[in-house]
Amino acid sequence: MSPFSQVGLLLINTIGSMALFIIILRFLLQLVRADFYNPISQFLVKATNPVLIPLRRIIPGFGGLDVASLVLAYVVQALLFAAIFMFAGYGLPWANILLWAPVGLFALLLNIYFWGLVITVIASWIAPGSYNPALILINQILEPVVRPIRKMMPDMGGLDLSPILVFLAIKIVEIMLLGPLVQMLQIPRGLIIGL
User: What pLDDT does residue 195 have?
Assistant: First the structure.
């Protein structure tokens, strides 16, 4: 692969991953009803509104879900795969790309939860009770997943082991569901970051 192609792949992966991350975070923040007045929430809203507001006129929400955000994430993921294949010098297998996009989004969602847990665990050691806007939003995203496990855990004297169980659950889902999907759909792991 030529240096030009490598630089192109790096730029496409970086910019595309950032855009996907912002769109998925916007979806998650609306899903968990996170603090709208948080400065990071305000940034996400301002960054995604120019595309989402017109898209919402065409695609309405359903059952409290922001379907327009999911459709936008799907389209961006598919375009990202297409750009990666184009710069890597492969043909554009559109049928495969349309099947790979939801798997890529699911992998990104698992990564967000995994790294969010890592950040909250480290922050609980370094700065317990911090009121950092990023930590508040991460906790608001993770709480619906961690709370049911925390309720089932016995009292450990202030020690919260629920993140460990969520880590295990994420890894089990990756092994049992994501791995077989990647193999079944023959998604090339070397080209796609996050898989």
Answer: 46
